[in-house]
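quick one if you have a minute, typing this from the bus. below you get a single protein, a line of residues and a line of whole numbers that encode the local backbone shape. could you go over both lines and see whether the tokens make sense for that sequence. anything you notice is useful, everything is just below.
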Amino acid sequence: MKLAFLSSNLLVGIVLGQDTERAPTPKARSLTLDEVVSIVATAVETDFEYREGAINNRSTALWEAATAYEWSRGLAGENATGSKYPFMLCNLSPNMTGNQRMKMLEESFPSDDSLNSTQVMYNGEDVMCELALLQPSEAINVEGDYFVVQPFLASMKIISGTISSFQEELDTINRGNRTDYVKIINGVFCPGIQVDNINAFHVEWTDNVTNILLSSLFPSEISENYYFTSQAYYGSDLITPGNQTNSSLFWKNVLDTDQKDEVCNDVFSNRLIYSVSSIGNTPWFEINYNVTGVTKHDVGCMLTLTLALSTLPSVCAVEIHHTPKPVNTNAQWLMQTGKEGSRPFFDVGLDGEGQIVTVSDTGIDPNNCYFWDVTQGRGEEFNLLNRKVVQYIPFENEDDYYLGHGTHVAGTVAGKRATDGLNESDGAADG
């Protein structure tokens, strides 16, 4: 059995000592806060209280301090255990394609196997960024006029919206009266962790994570591995009593409340099932959670688990698994711009009025408020006077199947609600 780049030092964090605040001096610059927010949609915006277009000197200073702290954490981990850590490598060289920028960046590394496995994170007109596992001592010496080397902070790994969604997601699960395991967390390992034996990898990784979570040192270890709960943060000149970030206060409360007296141990040891799979060369994981015996601490336990995963050098992305549910009210702006509330087609009068769309599916419920017409019947003959269904040719009968698909699809395509079969309100296609 061979596990490339896999050892226990990639599965655990490192607790830094008194020299934590001595920031190294990388030869290449790091990403600015504005740059990282434009590249990845993660917890960075929340953690650093970023506001687009606003000048916030403290947010910028905190970002720089957190980046320096992560350099220190990585170098300390490498010195102690030989660990590799994830870095975002960017090339801003002008007048190049993304492929040319990538090759130029990779050629700057002295060792042939330094970038043997990377993942492109962003490829724009002016910049190409990729993710790689590197020895921090090697990453810190990368230099080039247009190169950027950014340690991949825990905040960059937690997908946007994950932290704020746990209470809602667990409430949704509880309303469903589930008494079994449900998927709760998804994650992706960093590029460069190549697995020859997925089963052996799964066992070793799961055992290591469980041991970390159940360790008596766990609360203090996770606090030091995350900048906003670390001694370096609280000892910084940027922070004064009563002037802490909302994120630091939130996580301190979670760790103080839900790690006190080992209240999460039952969840961590008995109510989680880990699953590790691989797509191509990229291993990923999901965590299933037993909802039997839910307590008031479970949300905090899931939050703590997410934070712990984000501090592992082997993990590059963590997010909550959302229970799928239809939200047709979002379909309008998602189809038109992808920006919430923005409907430029409707703004210029392109609302589908006068257009006829054919739908072939399981059927339509004629009494559904999105199609009901109190003044007209429905049949196989063409009838342009009908409010919505100008012709209906049934496959089996004049109704949709029980839990059928057709009513939903037709409603998305051309539905317009009229609860009395006459007076309308908005649908996906307003016309």
In short: Confidence is low (pLDDT under 50) at residues 1-21. Residues 13 and 312 are 6 Å apart (CA to CA).
